Amino acid sequence: MIKAINRTRIKDIALRANVSIGTVDRVIHNRGEVSKATRDKILSIIDEMEYQPNLLASTLASKKTFSFALLFPEPISTESYWNKPMVGVRKAFHEIQQYGVNINIHLFKQSDPNTFNTEAQQILESNPDGVVLAPFFSRQSKEFIAELKKRAIPYVFIDSNIKDSDKLSYIGQDSYQSGTLAAKLLDYSIPENAAILVLQFAKEKDNLNHLMQREKGFYEYFNSNSTSGKKKLFTLEIIDPTDLIGQNKITDLLKSNPDIKGIFVTNSQVYYLARLIEENNLSGIRVIGHDLINENINFLKKGIVDFLICQRPEEQGYKAIITLFEHLVLKKEVNNENYTSIDIITKENLDYYK
Amino acid sequence: MIKAINRTRIKDIALRANVSIGTVDRVIHNRGEVSKATRDKILSIIDEMEYQPNLLASTLASKKTFSFALLFPEPISTESYWNKPMVGVRKAFHEIQQYGVNINIHLFKQSDPNTFNTEAQQILESNPDGVVLAPFFSRQSKEFIAELKKRAIPYVFIDSNIKDSDKLSYIGQDSYQSGTLAAKLLDYSIPENAAILVLQFAKEKDNLNHLMQREKGFYEYFNSNSTSGKKKLFTLEIIDPTDLIGQNKITDLLKSNPDIKGIFVTNSQVYYLARLIEENNLSGIRVIGHDLINENINFLKKGIVDFLICQRPEEQGYKAIITLFEHLVLKKEVNNENYTSIDIITKENLDYYK
Q1: A306 to B106: CB separation less than 8 angstroms, yes or no
Q2: What is the pLDDT of residues A174-195, one digit of tens each?
Q3: Per-residue confidence band for B202, with pLDDT thresholds at 50, 70 and 90
Q4: Do B90 and A4 touch (CB under 8 A)?
Q5: Rounded to an integer, what distance in angstroms lies between the CA atom of residue A122 and that of residue A246?
Q6: Is the ipTM of this complex over 0.90?
Q7: Among B residues 61-80, those touching chain A with beta carbons less than 8 Å apart
Q8: Is residue A245 within 8 angstroms of chain B, CB to CB?
């Protein structure tokens, strides 16, 4: 059985529609007069024959340039999480640069909401055509987007979402759902009557939207699964994982509660916990955390971290830029919510994850 | 902190290298005389400034057309696995069609190695520039590629690999490794002393390379993990999952062995097992299988199948075509092995998987 795929040319469409090449061209470029019936017929043939017009040529005719502003957390180190969305941003830029798009990147400190405000202010002063932001701090983000709305500047969220905020689009994980996935994996991995610890490394948890959602999804899984209901869950909040007092609090808790057989760390800082487990020779605890950063990979390989839930940060960066581009430059409809996949990484599939 | 990304133009490279635009152009298009030192300098600047040349323009100058032949299993139904690589093939075709590439698709029956031979013969008669094939049947595939080799026609494998075969490239999963991943997930999901059944739905298992590899990886995980070694494993081969005798064999085995708490089905036909579990009201068995086809998705949602290991079939189809294209048309170096990711899908992350 043979099927051939050949390139569709304007000529083929004209032949099929029984019109001139010029008429097809007018429909494709949306100019000149064509009757609705002919237009609809041609569009349906274009669709059917999977013809792909050359968008660049028509857009290049206009000389307008577009300025995008980015507001992201500053990566803590060269290996840390927030370098990754930037890889996707650069990739997107290379694809669209010929359309006259410039991108300005603003970074704030994850430990300091004030730096978020300063950078947000600079963005407003530069009067960009569109903004991509990680609404890391809930309160400060809401102030910023109120101002963007007032000025009719479209904004795309990355990494975490603020519902009912008139955003152009959200690109990222469904944090609640990733919490339920983490819950299932731990539920399956530990004995029936064991206890589970949810560990939040955060200064101001209530201002950190996605951590709240993950925890909520995690608890909800156990509340709604009767067969898993025997497991005891509790949450511990540690402000600073590098601080010795917090570390001692964790190890004391684990040593005095040997029925804790599973730990869920709600962010990428799971390696701090893994280090404590290794140093104290604690065994028989299944650990799940977030994000494929080098520190976490090491503990995944050693078998101290069992699962990492990942969220395709490169893709998030890429899609955020492309979405803004499609809206502003190509004037296309874009999706208001664009959830990236919730990936499960173990020692076994790590080397094949891209 | 602000960093700007701006488009790199040939002019910028010329300025930085302190040469004329014409010299940069000669290096980019690899024509005319440029000294090695100047050439190296320009190439390193191109690399550093992340300049992306417009390949199409230079390739369009040549008028040669290329003919690719595909040899894939015929999809059993409109929803079945082998429709998926074709989606990727079409996507790749749309990207490269303007370079004068034609693709001819040959389909063989998964139940009949003779149809593989017939289609392979037709491909040889058409004398294509390159071939993408799923080496589904080991013996027949080896005969075919021996002939391709003789005629110096490059071939790319998709879905399963034949090692040491002078292939241009393999695009697909590491089947052995996906077996170890399935093993880990089942190991974590069932009690310490439970038994595990490996179920092979296959007529001629020995002629089906990837199923053998998956089973091998699965057993190897338990052999090499001392803490998991208490679990008893055994394999059952069922020639035809639609046959009542085979089905009764499975249900009898499960009913008489209540210590079987986990089942691994080595291919996408896990839904046949799930149906038996449902019909016979068997509970407390964790099930893992392969591939995100509709029948499997239903049982994943119902909680009868716990995990599906997936292998990005669309991406495999896409990459196979692009690899052949890069080798034949763009004359680029291509990777000899291109492993796709080994994805874990559960009820919880299903809706976000792409």
Answers
A1: no
A2: 999 999 999 999 999 999 889 9
A3: confident
A4: no
A5: 36
A6: no
A7: 74
A8: no
- In chain B, residues with a C-beta closer than 8 Å to the C-beta of A180 are 348
Q: Which sign, positive or negative, has the C-alpha torsion A57, A60, A61, A62? A: positive
Angle between helices B270-279 and B294-301 (to 10 degrees): 40
R_g of chain A, CA atoms, integer Å: 25
- Judged by phi (left if over 0) then psi (alpha if -120 to 50, else beta), residue B168 lies in alpha
Interface probe, candidates B173, B335, B349, B354, chain A, greatest A C-beta count within 10 A: B349
Contact, B170 vs B338, CB < 8 A?
A: yes
Query: Using an 8 Å Cβ cutoff, are B307 and B343 in contact?
Result: no
The per-residue pLDDT for B4 is 47
The tens digit of pLDDT for each residue in B132-189 reads 999 988 889 999 999 999 999 999 999 988 888 899 999 999 999 999 999 999 999 9
Gap from A348 CA to chain B (nearest CA, Å)? 5
Closest in B5, B341, B351 to A93, CB measured: B5
Q: Average model confidence (pLDDT) for chain B?
A: 89
Q: Does B90 touch chain A (CB under 8 A)?
A: yes
Which domains does chain A possess? 10-53 (1.10.260.40), 66-172+313-340 (3.40.50.2300), 175-310 (3.40.50.2300)
